[in-house]
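Q: My hope is that you can spare some time for a protein that puzzles me. Underneath my words sits a plain record pairing an amino acid chain with its backbone structure tokens. Those tokens are not coordinates but codes from a learned vocabulary of shapes. Thank you; the sequence and its tokens follow:
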Amino acid sequence: MSNTPNIEPEFIKRAEAIILENLSNEQFGVSELADAMNMSRSNLLRKIKKQTEHSASQFIRQVRLQKGMGLLQETSLTVSEISYQVGFGSTSYFIKCFREQYGYPPGEVGRGSLEEDMEQEDVSSNFLKQYQWKIITALSLVVIVSSLFLFSKKDAESVVELEKTIAVLPFKNESSDSTNLYFVNGLMESALGNLQKIEDLRVISRTSVEKYRNTEKGIAEIAEELNVNYLVEGSGQRVGNQVLLSIQLIEASSDRPIWGEQYSREVGDIFALQNEVAQKIAAAIEAVVTPAELEQIEKRPTANLVAYDYYLQALGPYYAETNEGWEKAIPLFEKAIENDPQFALAFAYISISYYQLDKVQNQKQYMQQINSYADKALLYDSKSDVSLIAKALYYMYIGEYRLALPHLEKALEYNPNSSAVVAVLSILYGSYLPDTAKHLKYALMRVQLDIAANDPTTKSYIYLELSNALIQTGFIEEALTHINKSLDFDPKNYYAPYLKTLILFAKDRNIEQTTKLLEQEWQKDTTRLDILQDVANFHYYQEDYDNAFFYFEKFVQAKEKGGLNSYPHEDIKIGVVYEKMGLDEEAADYFKAYEDYCEINQSIYKSASMAVKYAHEGKYNQAIEQLDIFASQVNYQYWILIFMQLDPIMKPLKNHPGFNETMQKIKDRFWENQAKLRKSLEEQGLI
């Protein structure tokens, strides 16, 4: 007995050391710690609870936060960088946990005399020290009290907002008949779908929770991984005409149910049951449910239970997201329609299934089915987010991206937590209808809703998309943080190393080093046109025309061989390089091609493209006029600030009396809009 007190501290020290060894791995949780310490989860949980009076998840989080505090005090790293280094997948969640641990946000560490007296002060004195500079400069006691009250109110509101985060875990099938699994899954899908319609909640996607179907992880650990404060657990079975459902809402911080109920209803009452569950969960969390949202929740998908049963059977293979799955789901959805010819959801899912089949097989053989079923879905329910998604995908299928937008935005209005809609909007605004602000907004939303996507590769590409959106809007450090996350989840990510090279250039502006890195990346796969054109460009920016010609020639040959018309905005650079090499006729063709591109260009970059054209032609006044027009645009990419200054074509413009002033206007406009964007995203709880 006398040795017991010495054993436990050694155990905690060892646990801390292992956590610190795996600090940056956000996936390192209780199970991983138990494995590393060669003990069972239950034994680990018991020993940590006995020694620290914390759960194992809380203990791990505390070690991460303590290291975060040390880094904040000892380094100049940003909060975002540190949150990543200490294993938090979300900066906002790191800030929340840090505030709960220390009583103030991480951004305030090191200001005033806080750093000197950190360990001696309690939470209240920390708060006062944090804001002592306000007290010194205050004009009156009234101003001081008002300022503190307003800050406290704002802080409380942000906590309330964060508390309304929820995940619906896969329900357990308690039926002796395993074939009833689809019905129990349907109960879970309905609970999830109804909660997603409430804008006052942030509801984690189905994809993210599916991985916990057979998990042994505890509530606190799952909640931490998903970055939510509440979890819904359920189990059900169908016995003849009876539905038995047991469901509970669990508060993650205390690991206790705050609402729960057991139901025994007839199958005919299934829709009323599903609606009641959603409303009671929302009430328990004190979420605001608008009349419009309540109308959507209470809407019955069909009055025909046979049709509904076929529909539920179809969802399993549909969500498998394979050709075989979609091919199996379609006839089941069709059976549902046979029993209810006005079943909007069934029509919508058939349309989407055909779209997915054509997208994967790339045969373009189902255009009529995609459009026809989407139209019928909208005819029978124009306020269904799934109906609207189906029609939007049809427009994307035929390349009418602008026509897809209103359908997607309306779908998000009816289902504010739709990760599918958010993902498509992020891609549209990133690639097809460029808008950097909206691209970043939806990329951030996707990370929130798909924070725990099923596999590391998917997660890697989600972070890649976010990193791309961040660098386009000038958030360099944040972009670097998230591209590193992308590579951590999948070091073989096809695009991440290329993007990281460009982000590092934006940070360091080392053009020689970047050129070498791009060449090395291209050598890994010489079919990559995206990298090849940038290798050529970087030689061109350095006026290294021999090497630029070498790579541009390969670029041109690859385009001609593939019959491609990609990167038309590069034609003027190719023309300049060919002209430098004495290939005047070929150069003239590229100058004409660029002129044609400028004429048909309808993007926000048209005036910038025209400025380059006029600068090349020696029409400097007209070039400045076009730059002045471009200075009035918003939401353009950060790259334009960098590469316009490097372009040799623009070099003569620098002697024009209006050039510096106009370029300063473009820069000021960009950073002003970035500040507004940051504020807007903060208000929406996205950063």
Q: What stands out?
A: The beta strands are 165-168, 172-173, 202-203, 230-239, 242-251, 256-266. The chain has 34 helices and six strands. The chain has a mean pLDDT of 84. The two ends are 51 Å apart (CA to CA).
